[in-house]
Structure formats: structure tokens, C-alpha cells
């Protein structure tokens, strides 16, 4: 391949997407290739890796203007609805746990363990499936995700024993969760950095409204019919989502690697091998470790609050109907609903305010400043009030309801900043940065809280359990403050490390 030919090929590409090709190099194979026929695709891949150090796109790049504003809004809505489905499936059956346990001849604690397994597979999913979005396109991965989610939902509804229930719920989590990180990448494709906070808040609203309002839906269903109907309803939502993705979502990637290789080699089908564990490599950078700690602390608090509501609220107020206990989920749900738009706007406002202070310079860490008060005060304080008001039986229904509302409000203000930071901080990692963050939040925060919250409540009470959650939130606050103060230097060190690895790779190729 001549240098002139390579330069002409490179000039026709948006090469930022090629940053996904990292060590180990992907190998391109084609089933149609004859035995012994020389394949120049691996050579082409190595040539393309020479562009890895190109800078990210500027805010005024025409790439961000490919779609009109209404189309971008539609894309954000589709991504938000997609992100709503997996969390609603996770906790919608929470009010029905005793009924599910009875039907499957097991205990409520064992069914709660299925929630922990669900969170484990929610963590694995972005690691396994998200890298495919840069290889085959974001829309095909979103279709695969929605299709797998829909099929596994109906199989969960048809589960006849505990093993089937565990397996199909794990599948449900696996297919339903990769859309979180892929959705974040779609936002990064259509929104300039200073506008991403608001768009990301709508996406995050989907991920948080699912756990908040899902149990209300589940409580209504289990009161008037049986638990399997919950998953039939979720299946219907999955079908609607699948049709929306197929007919209305367009590919937003700057370049789809498999299509580009197929076009250049003249092959109709290209199979791209990849290393799914590359997402874990993101944790070699300290700023992404701290970002994972922040998200994990928020997720731990969220599941610690939402998972046991029926178990602590119903006995406290002598509620006998599942639907009555599930109505308490409306308190955090309202906080999440209100906090979503506020959080995104506040994050964007914070970024613009600090840009003005610096004379127009924008740094990703500025966005984290919008989470300071939520992590340091609102979330832990109202979590403690919620727990001890139930433990000491003070404040009636009003105090825990108000506490849940303000806790959820603070949580939703904090989340957009950390998600947008993961999209902005290390552009060369592309979707791996945010995928690693989702891995951390569900494997550490979601699964641990789901598996242990009832054990803690039964042994030390809801008051001390909520106090532990508050201290976890303060750990997230400390990590956030470290990022605000030292994040820029950590990020620059990470960028230097990436550049050094790229130079070594180039020297080896030459």
C-alpha cells in the first residue's frame, strides 16, 4: 500500500473512531476468503492505527451538525427509553418477591440474590457488548440489545423453577444494559461537550425512573393479578422499544470499522475479533478509578434505599397490600423526575460558569463541581434521616417520604456530571471509559447493595443500615473532591501514558 493511497484513504475518514483499535489489535477475517489467499485487512488495520493520536473534534466541528435539532431530541428520547427498560425489569417485581418465592419454592432472600446476580450481569454487559458498537455500529448493537432483552423478558415470565428464573433474568440484564454505555456514546456523537450534561440527564432519568416507578407498576399488578404479568408488561415495552430503534434511530458513528474494512477490501462480510476485557484496561488510569468509586457510591445508596422499601415500610405502618407499600416508591420517583432536568442544566451551567472564569477554557473536571453538594450533603443527610425516622418511628409517614424525595433529587443532580465526565475525559478511550464506569457501579454498588441490604436491616436495623449508606456516599464525595482538585493532572498523566503506548506500538510496526 503506497503512502499516497493511505493518505487518500485517511482523508476520507473521521479518524477519531479508529482510536478504538488498540492493543491487542483486532484481526479481520472473512468466511468467504479462499485458503491461502493473502488478506491485506490486518495490514490495513496496522496502517490505520497510525492515526490514533489525532485530537478529538472541536466544539464547532460540522460533525455535530449532521442531524437537525428535532432528530437529535428524538435520538435522546429513544436512548432514554431504552435505558429505562433494564432497571424497570430489575426492580419492578420487588413488591412481588414473597409471591415469586412462594411460586418457585424458595425464600425471599434467595430472590433478592437474583437481583444481585442481575446487577453482576449488568456490569458484565457493557464490557462484552459495548465494544461491538465501534466495530459494527451503534444501531445494530442497540437492536441486538433490545431484541435479546425482549426475548429474555418473556422467558423470565415463563420460568417454572428457580434455575430458569436466575438464568433468564441474567440474560435480561446482559442484553438490556449495554445500551447505557452505547447510549452515552450516541450522546457524545450528536452533542458538543458543553451541551452533553442536559442530554445525559434525560438518558440518566431513564436509568433511574425504572427502579423508582417499576415497583409501583409491580405493586399494582401483583395486587390484582400474578407476578408473571409484570414480565409480560416488560416484554411489551421491549417490543415498542425495538420498533423505535429499527425505524427511527440512525447510525451516529463517525465510522463503522467493519463497514470501512469491507468497503476497502471488497468483501461482503467482515468478522472482527475483539478483546472484550479491554474495558477493564481503563482502570489503569487513576481518574477513571475515582470516577468508578463515585458512581459505585451513588448506586450503592440507590439500591440500598429502593430494594427493601416494602420490607421496612409495610411493617412500620401496618400495610397489608403490596400496592400500598409500592406507592412509597413515588417519593423517590418524583425526586428523580424533577432532578433529571435540574441536574443536567446545573451541570452545563457549572461548566459554562467556570469556562467564563478561565476566559473560555473548558476542562472536563469542571462538570464534577455540580455534584459536590449532592454527594457531600443532600444524599447522606437525607439517607440518615430516612433510616432513623423509620427505626425510631418518628415523623409519621411524612418524614421518610420527604427524605426519600430529597435524597433522589440529590442523586439525580450528581449522576449527569460523572457520566458526562467519563465521555469527555479521555476521548481516545471512546466508549471504554463510560463502559468501565457502568461496570464499576453495578458490580460494586448495585450487586453488593442488593445482596446485603436485607441482611443488614435484619441484623442491625434500618437506621444503622442507612448510616452505612451515608458513609459510602461520603466516600464518593471525597473521591469527587480529589477529582476536582487533582483530576486535571491525573487526566494529563493518563493521556501521556496513552500517547507513550501509541509511540511504542508505532515503533514496533515500523
From TrEMBL:
Region: Disordered, residue numbers: 1-20
A Pfam entry, by short name: MFS_1
Example of a GO cellular component annotation carried by this entry: plasma membrane
GO molecular function terms attached to this record: transmembrane transporter activity
Residue ranges of every copy of the Major facilitator superfamily (MFS) profile domain listed in the record: 75-488
Keywords: Membrane, Transmembrane, Transmembrane helix
Residue spans crossing the bilayer: 74-97, 163-187, 199-223, 229-249, 277-303, 323-347, 368-388, 394-418, 439-457, 463-483
Membrane topology field: Multi-pass membrane protein
UniProt xrefs under SUPFAM superfamilies: MFS general substrate transporter
InterPro entries per UniProt: MFS, MFS_dom, MFS_trans_sf
Superkingdom of origin: Eukaryota
Biased composition (Polar residues): 1-15
Subcellular compartments: Membrane
Name the record gives this protein: Major facilitator superfamily (MFS) profile domain-containing protein
Organism: Ogataea haglerorum
Lineage: Eukaryota, Fungi, Dikarya, Ascomycota, Saccharomycotina
